[in-house]
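Below is one such record:
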Amino acid sequence: MGKIFTARFITALATAATLAVLPPAEAHAGAIGSTPVAGFDYQVGGVTMTVPTGCMFTHIIRGDGKKITYQNAGVDCGFVGALNAGFCNWRIDFTYADTDNKTYRTSRGKTHAECEIHPMRDNAPQTLPRYGRACAHININGVRRVSQCHHITK
């Protein structure tokens, strides 16, 4: 047991020494948030589709200040939610609002007629003109169902 402890201790010291001589990492900010999707019914071609509870809408954003280097949003379902027929006629939009909560930019996604269990969309990197908030919204059959937002601050 003493040899295993010594080997781990030496490995930890070597790792710490290596990290100490590396240049400092560039500062980046990011956020990940999830919002539950409330169960609902909707019509597609005369057929009633049911989205049960058990799905989460997740929005990921990475960047530094007003510069967004990566942004993604999508739905993941677990338990009973994973057994549903999917989300039909879906669209994911990204909106950007200033600190007064006034929306100044919208990136409207494509409407997908096909049904998908895990709809997802990436958005292009960009630099925002103002601080405020970045939100992702999922629309099903033309109705906004869930939103998830992150504050963009200094």
User: Anything to note?
Assistant: The mean pLDDT is 82. The longest strand covers residues 67-77.
